[in-house]
UniProtKB/TrEMBL annotation:
Gene3D superfamilies: HUPs (3.40.50.620). One of its GO terms (molecular function) is catalytic activity. Residues 15-70 form the Phosphoadenosine phosphosulphate reductase domain. It holds the Pfam family PAPS_reduct. This is Phosphoadenosine phosphosulphate reductase domain-containing protein.
Amino acid sequence: MIKRQYNDGKDHVHVLSYGGGTQSTALLLMALKGEINGVIPDYIIFSDTGWEPKHVYNWIEKINKHIKANYGREIIFCDNGNIRDDIVEGSETGNRFASIPFFTKDKNGEIGIARRQCTNEYKILPVNRKIRSLLGYKPRQRIKEVVHLWKGISTDEIQRVKPSRESWQVAEHPLVDIAFVDRSRCITYVEREGLGTPAKSSCIGCPFHDFNAWREMKLKDQESWQDAVEIDRLIRKLPRFKNNAFLHKSGRPLEEVDFNEDQLDIDHFLNECEGMCGI
């Protein structure tokens, strides 16, 4: 629970996990205005996978300048390497990299999906490591404070609300439990602040992109589209995978997919990356 004072004799620290997207931007602005039970986060942390489109990085820079000028606060950046570079190296050398949920197709045409390790390794672990560092702890040292980790999950994504796996951490979902707002209201909130329409944050080559996301990228962001096509070709025969890998759920090369067809069967609200990739 997010509140100003706790009567348990422990030190409580509030950390906002900023994903750079719609909901987490609304949450960040609400928090700095004191609208989340009057509690201002002690830290704002963004974990960079290194593979967001340029417009997302531009948006994050814009928000960082805004909160610095208006609230005297800044986003703290962390990372665990570059997910794109790691995929490229793994495809060329066979070295291990954190698996993203590639779609796979066997000789019989059956479609499967690979394990999703990217969320943990490029989002969760870097944030936890940064929190430890900020609090002055070395690896494996026991954390004495209670850390409240705020996540930008809105009411229309309530399936994503989950407790933390860390004993020293409490997962908080202020948009659900306090503000009670959905995605559309988050967009309106940010626009009313005069900042424009917030970016939608997700990796360029995320296999969870729905039809609209791929189509919009292809039509409006050729740089990201060509990058995704390049990686899609590169992963076709990964040394560590028994079957061919693809970024698109059809098990076809991305450049051959007809995006005029109705393929809206993966709900992007459940799969959008907002700091913790739905975890």
